[in-house]
Amino acid sequence: MITDSLWTAFGPSPLTQEDFEYFAGKIKKLSGISMKQAKLDLIKTRLTQRLREHSYKNFSDYRNYLETLPDTHEEWQEFINILTTNKTDFFREPDHFHFLIQYILPKWLKEDKTTFHIWSAAASTGEEAYTLAMILKHYLPPGRDFKIIGTDIDTKVLKTAENAVYSLSKLHEIPDLYRDECLDIGEREAKGWFRIKAHLKEKVTFVPHNLIEASFVDDKGAPKIFDLILCRNVLIYFDKKTTELIAHKLYEHTIDQGFLFIGHSESFQGCTHSWLNHNSSIYQKAKRA
User: Fold this and answer.
1) Chain segment 212-223, per-residue pLDDT in tens
2) Which of 59, 150, 222, 256 could share a disulfide with 206, CB 3.0–4.6 Å?
3) Is 46 a catalytic site residue?
4) What is the mean pLDDT of residues 85-114?
5) What is the C-alpha to C-alpha distance for residues 40 and 145, in angstroms, rounded to an integer?
6) Distance (Å, rounded) from C-alpha 146 to C-alpha 166?
7) Each residue's pLDDT tens digit, 21-50
8) Span 72-86, average pLDDT
């Protein structure tokens, strides 16, 4: 082990190619995230703080530690949390929400259904899920309800999502239309923060889930089925094979003629899948014969 003063002065030894390949291989196995050679500096930067917390002088020591751990050890979740990327905003990529308001909801309201079900499949710190809750609260008429499930592989960000408290610096992301109805602005000791109002928060549930693992099931073991799934700005981290696996999984969790939104910079081009391409980042499940 190395003292804090020496660690501060010199930091860890360089990340070797062998150690990089081990860490990249592990995150691929655990999460499906593909980290190629260009991500070496990213892995080094993100793991450096973990090395310091454990007082390891080099990445090989941390690797040796990981190699001794069973698959169920809590350190693996910390490893995943460190190496996953969690950039998100309220009302990010607004064209998707315009499509929900102008096309999906009017179509759904003509059907004999009472509850609109949504899965935010890469929920991060919760902004996407609460954006959806604001929209549905505003546009659904009395007698119609909604439920949103937000999932992420990173357990740390889900705690932020569950707390539903955000810095006031993010308030500009939320249109004025929704603020009075959906937000409580902090005062006194809570100044500088806002929170999602309780009547919206109770409509959203956050649970840990790994997209590359088994189907997302309910308490009875049956696959959860959704009217709309959002899996945005996460597919860019997967290779073709993993993207195809996830595309199939999401398809199985969508109601007939339900929809999937992926990120504007993402595509299923070159992948084998069953989705109908509605436009560049909006897909629809075909109606069963």
Assistant:
1) 886 776 666 666
2) 150
3) yes
4) 94
5) 46
6) 23
7) 999 999 999 888 888 898 899 899 889 988
8) 89
Annotated active-site residue 219? The verdict is no
- The more confidently predicted of residues 289 and 211 is 211
Residue range(s) in the chain whose domain bears CATH number 1.10.155.10: 4-83
Tell me how long the chain is: 289
Phi, psi angle pair for 242, to nearest 5°: -70, -40
Whose tokens are 């929209």? That residue is 135
Q: Which of 46, 52, 92, 144 is catalytic?
A: 46
Range(s) within the chain of domains with CATH label 3.40.50.150: 95-284
Residue 145 DSSP symbol: E
**Which amino acid is located at 187 in the chain?**
E
pLDDT of residue 65: 93
Out of 1.20.1260.10, 3.40.50.620, 1.10.155.10, 3.40.50.2000, select the CATH number for domain 4-83: 1.10.155.10
- Rounded to whole angstroms, how far apart are CA atoms 250 and 260? 8
Contacts 24+ apart (CB under 8 A), 82-87: 82/46, 82/47, 82/49, 82/50, 83/23, 83/27, 83/31, 83/33, 83/35, 83/43, 83/46, 83/47, 84/31, 84/33, 84/153, 84/154, 85/237, 86/124, 86/125, 86/152, 86/154, 86/157, 87/124, 87/233
Q: Find the catalytic residue in 19, 152, 154, 227.
A: 152
Which pLDDT value is given to residue 12? 60
Structure-block tokens of residue 280: 């560049």
Distance CA 36, CA 3 (A): 33
Q: Are strands 226-231 and 115-120 parallel, antiparallel or unpaired?
A: parallel
* Dihedral (CA of 199, 94, 33, 68) sign: negative
pLDDT above 90 for 289 = no
Res 13: pLDDT = 72
